TrEMBL record:
Protein name according to UniProt: DUF6857 domain-containing protein
Organism: Pyrus ussuriensis x Pyrus communis
DUF6857 domain residues: 2-130, 131-208
Stretch forming the signal peptide: none
Length: 208
């Protein structure tokens, strides 16, 4: 059975006044609770996206080969661009959390629509509750740590890439010398070097 999120259009005219009052109060509590849940879910999704990029970078760091740098360079640029996007997103969410603390009393119409959308996503994905207890969620508090992670990850990726390119160029020029010494032989590595050198403009643009 498809799960459906109850909206505020529920008619309580056919029930007693006491039940109607309790029902309306319950709907108000639901709106406030769902707003908090939607904000927590938004933070969780943004953080999950960043953690995935961290995992990708960790794998790239462990599998990249100096002797065949082109695939690693291409992969790095893709991951780095995604990290920049994630960094922008988490900073935006953190900024919104700091600016809307005065609006806790009620949920505006547009925000209410977004709340419903986020909750529908949660219901559709059938999110489970983890038994692991690592602390309590406080609005916006965890995003500070996520922003810190994004900033440090971006910085570490920059340092890693500079070191990787430097080592790759050193290794490439050595192999290039070997190829030049034996002009009758053109190993695959020599072609790889040409491909890597063709990426220098891209690397220089990134450095700028």
């Amino acid at each position: 059975m498809k799960k459906k999120w109850t909206d505020e259009s529920v008619s309580l005219d056919a029930v007693s006044s006491d039940i109607a009052r309790l029902g309306k109060e319950a709907l108000q509590r639901k709106v406030l609770a769902s707003a908090a849940a939607a904000e927590a879910l938004e933070e969780a999704i943004a953080t999950e996206s960043l953690v995935r990029k961290l995992s990708m970078f960790a794998k790239l760091s462990s599998t990249s080969k100096i002797g065949n740098p082109l695939p690693a360079i291409d992969r790095f640029f893709w991951i780095y661009d995604e990290v920049v996007k994630s960094n922008t997103l988490v900073e935006s969410i953190a900024g919104n959390r700091n600016s809307d603390t005065s609006n806790n009393a009620q949920v505006p119409t547009e925000q209410s629509k977004l709340v419903s959308l986020w909750v529908e996503v949660a219901l559709a994905t059938d999110l489970g509750i983890s038994n692991a207890r690592v602390g309590t969620w406080t609005k916006g508090h965890g995003m500070k740590d996520t922003v810190e992670l994004a900033t440090h990850l971006q910085s570490e990726m920059q340092m890693w890439f500079l070191q990787f390119v430097e080592k790759a160029l050193d290794a490439g020029f050595r192999v290039f010398g070997e190829c030049a010494a034996d002009s009758g032989k053109l190993p695959i590595d020599c072609g790889s070097i040409a491909a890597v050198l063709s990426q220098l403009k891209r690397v220089n643009k990134w450095l700028d």
